[in-house]
Amino acid sequence: MLVPLLILPVPGAAAREISSAQKTPIDLKDPQLISEGDKVFAQNCSITYCHGREGAAGRAPSVRDKKWEVTRLRKVIMEGIPNTSMPNWNDKLTERQISAVTAYILSISGEEPVKSQPSSAGFAPEKTRPAFTAPAAPLPESLVGDPARGEQLFFATAGERGCVGCHVIDGKGNPVGPDLTGSVRRNARALFGDIVFPGPALDASKPLLRIVMKDGEKILGLKQEETPAAVRVFDMSRVPPVLRRLAKEKIQSVEPQTRSAMPERYGEIYTLRELLDLVSFLKSSGAPSAVRVSFLDIQ
Prior knowledge:
Elements: H1 18-23, H2 31-44, H3 70-79, H4 95-107, H5 147-154, E1 168-169, E2 172-173, H6 188-196, E3 208-213, E4 218-226, E5 230-235, E6 242-247, E7 251-257, H7 266-269, H8 272-284
C-alpha cells in the first residue's frame, strides 16, 4: 500500500528534489527506502548525544515502538523541535534522505502509521514537562554561568575535577576524547546533557575496552590504534589518562564496553552553578564574545 506524503516547501538540499517528489507518491514500506533510511539514521541520528542504536533511547528519547502520524513525523525531521536539542534537517539532508529516515522510523515503530491525526508528540518524551515560565526579574547570579570561572574549572587538574586531561579546546589540552573547540555551535542544553549524562560510546574505531593482562593487571582503556602485535590505549585509570602500548601476547582477555569513557559523576562533583560556568566556557569557544548560559538555557 502506498502512503502519500505531504511535501512541504523547505529550503536547502531537500528543496532541490521536491518538484520530482511531488509527482510520484513515495512507498514508505519500500525495503530499499527503509534500508537507505537505516544508514542515514545511523550516520546522523544515532550518534553520541542523540538517539540510541536502531532508534532506542540514548540522550534523546526512543523513536521506536511508538505510534507515528506521518506528516508530523516528517515535519519534525525537517524542522526540528524548538528549544530542544532536536535540530532541523531540511538543509542537511536531501528530500530522498528525509523520506528514507521517515520510512525507517515507521518500520521500527511496531505499528501502522497514523495518516492524519494532529499530534504534538514528535520526539518529545512520553510525559511532556510543563513549560517553565521565566521570572520577570533577572535571574540570581547563582543561576547564570560565567565563562571565566568555567575556564578555571575546565583546566583544573586536581582529583576528579577538570576536563583538560581528556579534551582539547582552542588548541590546549589532551586529545583523549573529542576536541571541544567551537562548542558554540551546539546548544547549551545539549552541552549540559553531555556533561551530566554521558552517553554510549559510538565511535567504533575507538571503543572503551576492559583488558585483563596475563599478569593479572586490569586496565580500562580507550583504544587508539591496533597492530598485529599490539594495541595502544589510553589507560583511563590514570589522571590524566596515559597512552600505553600493550603487547597482544601479554593480554589474556579483552571485553568491549558499551558506555562512554566519560566519567558519570559530574552531576555530583559539580554544583549547578559550576556546570553553568563550564557550559558558558564551552559556548564561548569560537564565539565573537563571551557567552553567559543561564538555568533557563538548559531547560
